[in-house]
Amino acid sequence: MKNIALMASGAGSNALNLIEAAKLYPNVRIACLIVDTLDSPLPDVVRQKYPMLPVHRILPMGGLKGKEMKSEHEKRVLETLTNHEVNYVFLAGYMRIL
User: Strand, coil or helix: what is 89?
Assistant: First the structure.
């Protein structure tokens, strides 16, 4: 079984298509969804349509600046990927450089 994390920033049409496509492959599991924006409707859509899929909204740290902010954000993303034993990360409109 290959565990895949989806990372998205916007409305999530690509992520939703990947979730549906994964159903066609018995050896693939979408392990989690990570969203990095506060205004994306995707987490609510996914929670409603796929309630068993873990959704994480990992926002950049507002009080930190520059490299410290980026480093803390990356640490939280990596921790989430590790916790879900992710093998592959698919960027579905994710707009942040890690």
Answer: strand
DSSP-assigned letters across all residues of 2-62: EEEEEEE-SS-HHHHHHHHHHTT-TTEEEEEEEE--SS-SHHHHHHHH-TTS-EEE----T
For 84, list phi and psi in degrees, rounded to 5: -95, 5
Comparing CA positions, the residue from 12, 7, 9 lying closest to residue 88 is 7
The model's pTM is: 0.89
Q: Residue 21 CB: number of other CB atoms within 10 A? A: 11
24: enclosing H helix or E strand: none
Q: What is the pLDDT along the chain (98 residues), one digit of tens a residue?
A: 999 999 998 888 999 999 999 999 999 999 999 998 888 999 999 999 999 999 999 988 765 556 667 788 899 999 999 999 999 999 988 877 66
